[in-house]
Specification:
heterodimer; A: about 300 residues; mainly alpha; 12 helices; 2 strands; disordered C terminus; B: about 400 residues; alpha/beta; Rossmann fold; 2 domains; seven-stranded mixed beta sheet; six-stranded mixed beta sheet; 13 helices; 16 strands; globular; Urea ABC transporter substrate-binding protein (chain B); signal (chain B); ABC_urea-bd_UrtA (chain B)
């Protein structure tokens, strides 16, 4: 019986890790490249949830959730583009001010959602084909959670391909390694910033859709995911995709396994303690080898 | 960061100034200004509790409008000062003292979570004002400055347990938000479950507003209880039921008895998600009473034809009317005189039938068990029969404590 709970929690840990990772990826991208702490990142998740809600109204049917994913990606990317162009790019020299400014954006977006959709959440239902689950060795694996893990892997692979194989990825890596040099050899650094910020926001929007399958869609839903997202980014090390992924897995598994012994509240306390101790031992994060090596 | 610390400093200074100012005089003296009387309405209009509290504010405003249309209280029109508690206990305390000390209100209608009530309690005791609290709660509190119209544990939690025992459920899993109400309600339930020779299969708490239930559900699956008793509050319910459904545990396969899900919450969550689950309240929208039909019609005329009506809304609504009747009986708005008059009012008609305030300032009322249908309404499947006298201190959980006011 207990080993079954352990196996179930292992799976849940991976599932929670995939949620953390989706919420954190966009943040890791923009933080890694621009050192901008985007406090409005959670609201991009929220925007994704509401875009899913609207998509489900416009195109009902079992596959609507698959349509909602690109819609939310595009919508949140657009919103990210606006925020980056109108605000963050103008505060490039003052990183602390971007923190306050994006916090303001976060409050504005929350209030906007409240005015448009009401303070009470909206309903986003998982389609029936995500209803069931499968049992592997007595452990029940819900389809919804498997779907989210699959989406996370697809997004990770997509970003990795983009960064490693495309011309845009080349530019991003160049700016990431040495912003001034990249600018000096003629790379339009601001355009790269804009693209990365749009991409990060878009991924957050996409994450908002899948999070809506397991959680509420309310004006302040972004706030519940922003703290784990920051934890993952800080723990993962700056700008390392592998580090972010490993950090999400560590945190997800830690939180799920801790819950075998203690309540969710206590598990959160232990999780924060764990991150503090971890950062004492490894201030640079989980995996910083690649970027550190390049920096040196 | 300098910005934040200076803001905190400013808050602290203004808080201190308020505290000093309040030492010099009672709060309610300025309540009746000219031909009007000010009252406070304090619910969460934003944040995780907005799902439940906005409509309570609406119901309280409806009662105020109705009273004003009928000539007011003691010849005075009521002016409602509405504040947003923002689902945050300390905000509730701040706004309560703002209403009483700056707004000079005669009384305040509001609160939902017990955390918000506990935070406001010192403010009301310090200023000698009176809070009308509309929601079921865990008892174990007895203040002259609060009228508790929502159910005491023996008017909701215990009748629910009695019903479950009658259905033959023998093992119980308790899930709740992590704050004083679920913890205390579950403490009382555990005592009664153990006394009845049944089993508590497990117990789990999630922070208020929490959205991850994977671990909780794994524990439920491992414990295999006969029924889940759910004291989650706010948006967490959406996440809980969505993840239960994803894990293949619908209310149809594993019964869930909820204490904080009413018609409004069911509608907002999507009734299909919670169809077949149970709830225990002192009021259901489906109660067939003439006063109820009249109330529903008046509410819907003002707030929309498909608005859902819930138990705390009706308690909020009847609180305002009870305050009016008590003020008229007392012949003034002094909170001390009003609360004594309220406890001596005797029976009065409300959308939930005839109720009265007991000397311990809680409501004497019936309890009903409902089963949620696909249209978001509850089918009433059991009731307590007689009116239940409120017991703030459960004799098993808190032996020897009594509430004398």
């Amino acid at each position: 019986m207990d080993s079954l709970l352990f196996l179930t929690q292992l799976f849940n840990g991976v599932s929670v890790a995939s949620l953390y990772l989706l919420a954190a990826l966009g943040l890791a991208l923009s933080f890694g490249l621009m050192r901008v702490i985007n406090m409005a990142h959670g609201e991009m998740l929220m925007l994704g949830g509401y875009l899913a809600y609207l998509t489900l109204i416009v195109v009902p049917g079992p596959l609507a959730i698959l349509i909602a994913i690109p819609v939310a990606f595009a919508g949140a990317a657009l919103m990210g583009g606006v925020v980056q162009t109108a605000l963050i790019s103008r505060l490039a020299q003052r990183p602390l001010d971007t923190l306050l400014a994006t916090w303001g954006v976060s409050l504005i977006l929350q209030q906007a959602a409240r005015d448009i959709f009401g303070a009470i959440g909206v309903e986003v239902r998982a389609p029936d084909w995500l209803g069931g689950g499968m049992a592997v060795g007595g452990v029940n694996l819900p389809s919804t959670r498997l779907f989210i893990i699959a989406v996370t892997i697809a997004v990770l692979a997509g970003i990795a391909l983009l960064l490693k194989r495309s011309r845009i990825g080349l530019l991003v890596r160049a700016v990431n390694q040495d912003r001034m040099m990249a600018g000096a050899v003629g790379i339009d650094v601001r355009r790269v910033d804009l693209m990365v910020f749009c991409l990060g926001s878009g991924i957050a929007g996409l994450a908002g859709v899948v999070l809506a399958l397991l959680g509420p869609v309310t004006p302040n839903v972004g706030q519940s995911y922003i703290i784990p997202a920051f934890l993952v980014v800080v723990m993962g090390g700056l700008g390392s995709l592998v580090g972010t992924t490993v950090a999400a897995l560590i945190l997800g598994l830690f939180s799920a396994l801790a819950q075998i012994f203690v309540d969710v509240s206590m598990a959160q306390v232990l999780l924060l303690l764990f991150v503090i101790l971890f950062l004492q031992a490894r201030p640079q994060g989980v995996i910083a080898i690649r970027s550190r090596a390049l920096d040196a | 960061m300098a910005f934040q610390s200076s803001k905190i400093l400013a808050l602290a200074v203004s808080g201190l100034a308020l505290a000093l100012a309040s030492c010099s005089g009672g709060g309610a003296d300025g309540a009746a200004k000219g031909d009007g009387v000010a009252v406070g309405v304090l619910q969460s209009l934003t944040g995780t509790m907005a799902i439940s509290e906005i409509t309570v504010k609406n119901a309280e405003m409806l009662a105020i409008d109705e009273i004003n249309a009928a000539g007011g209280v003691l010849g005075k029109k009521i002016t409602a000062l509405v504040e947003d508690g923002a689902s945050d206990p300390s905000t509730f305390a701040q706004k309560a003292s703002k209403l009483i000390e700056d707004g000079g209100v005669a009384t305040v209608f509001g609160g939902w979570t017990s955390a918000s009530r506990k935070a406001m309690l010192p403010v009301f005791e310090r200023t000698g004002n009176l809070l009308w609290y509309p929601v079921q709660f865990e008892g174990n509190e007895c203040s002259p400055n609060i009228m508790y119209s929502g159910a005491q544990p023996n008017q909701q939690a215990l009748p629910a347990l009695e019903w479950a025992v009658k259905q033959g459920y023998k093992s119980y899993f308790l899930v709740g938000s992590d704050y004083v109400y679920p913890r205390t309600a579950n403490l009382i339930l555990k005592k009664h479950i153990e006394k009845g020779g049944m089993a508590v299969a497990g117990e789990a708490y999630v922070p208020l507003g929490g959205t991850d239930f994977s671990g909780v559900i794994a524990k439920i699956q491992s414990a295999k209880p006969a029924i889940v008793i759910n004291t989650l509050n706010g948006d967490s319910n959406v996440a809980f039921f969505k993840q239960m459904q994803a894990a293949g545990l619908s209310p149809k396969t594993l019964p869930v008895m909820s204490f904080s899900i009413g018609e409004q919450e069911a509608q907002a969550m999507g009734a299909a998600l919670v169809e077949g689950s149970y709830a225990t309240w002192n009021y259901f929208q489906s109660l067939a009473l003439p006063d109820n039909a009249r109330f529903i019609e008046a509410y819907r005329k003002k707030f929309g034809a498909d608005a859902a009506i819930t138990d705390p809304m009706v308690h909020g609504y009847l609180n305002v009317w009870a305050w009016k009747a008590a003020a008229e009986k007392a012949g003034g708005f002094d909170p001390e005189a009003v609360r004594k008059a309220a406890a001596a009012l005797g029976g009065f008609d409300t959308p939930m039938g005839k109720v009265s305030f007991a000397p311990n300032q809680s409501l004497v009322q019936k309890a009903y068990v409902g089963k949620l249908k696909g249209d978001g309404q509850f089918e009433i499947i059991a009731d307590s029969g007689a009116d239940i006298a409120p017991e703030p201190y459960d004799p098993l959980a808190f032996p020897g404590k009594t509430c004398k006011l």
